[in-house]
User: Fold Pectinesterase inhibitor domain-containing protein from Gossypium raimondii.
Amino acid sequence: MEGSSLRHWKVIPILLITLQFTTNMVLSLADAPFDKQRNIEYIKSSCSSTTYPRLCYRSLSIYANKIKTSPRLLVDTALNVTLKASKSTSRLMVKISTIHGLRPRVAAAMADCIEVIGDSVDELQQSIEELGHISRSNFALTMSDIQTWVSAALTDEDTCMDGFAGKSMNGNVKTMVRKRIVKIAHLTSNALALVNNYASTQSNLP
Ligand SMILES: *[C@@H]1O[C@H](CO)[C@@H](O)[C@H](O)[C@H]1NC(C)=O
Assistant:
């Protein structure tokens, strides 16, 4: 009789441990989709303040699990995505510019574009580097630098398109260049909106 009640008492801690283990497992299984949903919602709501929210969401949601709900990682990723697209556009334009038989005015516009998009790649690179060194003590100054760099990149993209203004420039080259430049200009504009958002929120201090 006494022996059997002792056995009962020994079983209780095992039951408790098992219960706790099961509870933890259920909670962590429930956490994963919850986190994922929260990360996606964070990107969606951040993108809603940009000029091209659908492009913003499309280009950033694939990094949701890396960004989580960090405004700094959001800006970093937006700049990275923009830089990558700008570099690939730059490479394409260099390729197009070597096509023989381009009309002289088109060839000149291409040469100008290659130069200003090169500048814009440098400016985006500079922004990413500065963001890497951001701290509580240099936050305002660094963010203001980044705003300047990203705005300059946007101006360079506009300058490239201005070179192709006018019907006389119409043709395959203009169509191809415009499509790419518009895309990177929209990505840059979105990145700038996210940068401005980050800069203006005091609670974002690293
Ligand atoms: C941005 O790109 C750099 C270089 O490719 C990489 O090391 C870094 O992790 C990227 N940052 C984010 C937030 O994805």
Summary: The chain has a mean pLDDT of 89. The chain has one domain: 53-203.
